[in-house]
Amino acid sequence: MKPWVLGLTGGIGSGKSAVVDAFGRLGVHWVDADHAARWVVEPGRPALGLIVDRFGEAVLASDGSLDRAALRERVFREPEQRKWLEQLLHPLIRQETAEHLARATSPYAIMVSPLLVESGQHHQVARVLVVDVPEALQLERAIRRDQSSEAQIRAILNAQASREERLRHADDVLVNERDRAWLESEVKRLHEFYLTLRGGQE
């Protein structure tokens, strides 16, 4: 039987990676759409050439790989460019992600995506788990982790779906504001519940 797919999402700094690592330790196969987003623009892949044709060599690092920060600088300022980039990359990321999920041998597999709701990827999954944290904690974690300014993090927060929007699509919510041990036990509880589901629904 093909594994059903759980979509895992949450805003920046919510702790998605800690959650998915815990699922991984329980033997659940997962793929991160953010990783797939890097794979599709690796040197030698067609998408990178198209990006350079449009934005010029300035978006390349000295080793010929994509300079993500330089590209982000350009597209954040111009909604038109961001739209073009998303139309190019989203289908490729979707395909890459699907290929990885197809290799899963666990009863269910997880697709991690910060933009699960915004990109419409939630239509591709059987169930949605939202990792949620209060915004103040989100900001504090993200600033600490990315060494970014509060303004930069707020810009990313504003580009992501609002908490309300994300929670509206959630089948399950994990509020990640306590310690790691508590998080592990919550993941285990969800995992045991997920193992009882057929096709991701009760």
From TrEMBL:
Q: Which CDD domains match?
A: DPCK (cd02022)
Q: Where in the cell is it found?
A: Cytoplasm
Q: Does the keyword Zinc-finger apply?
A: no
List residues binding ATP: G13, S14, G15, K16, S17, A18
Matches recorded under SUPFAM superfamilies: P-loop containing nucleoside triphosphate hydrolases
GO CC terms = cytoplasm
Q: Which BP terms does GO give this entry?
A: coenzyme A biosynthetic process
Which reaction is this enzyme known to catalyze?
A: 3'-dephospho-CoA + ATP = ADP + CoA + H(+)
| Cited InterPro entries | Depp_CoAkinase (IPR001977), P-loop_NTPase (IPR027417)
Molecular function GO terms recorded: ATP binding; dephospho-CoA kinase activity
Q: Which UniProt keywords apply?
A: ATP-binding, Coenzyme A biosynthesis, Cytoplasm, Kinase, Nucleotide-binding, Transferase
> PROSITE patterns of this UniProt entry?
DPCK
What the protein does comes down to: Catalyzes the phosphorylation of the 3'-hydroxyl group of dephosphocoenzyme A to form coenzyme A.
User: Which NCBIfam families does this UniProt record tie to the protein?
Assistant: dephospho-CoA kinase
Name of this chain's protein: Dephospho-CoA kinase
Name the source organism.
Answer: Stutzerimonas xanthomarina DSM 18231
Q: What is the lineage of its organism?
A: Bacteria, Pseudomonadati, Pseudomonadota, Gammaproteobacteria, Pseudomonadales
**Gene designation:** coaE
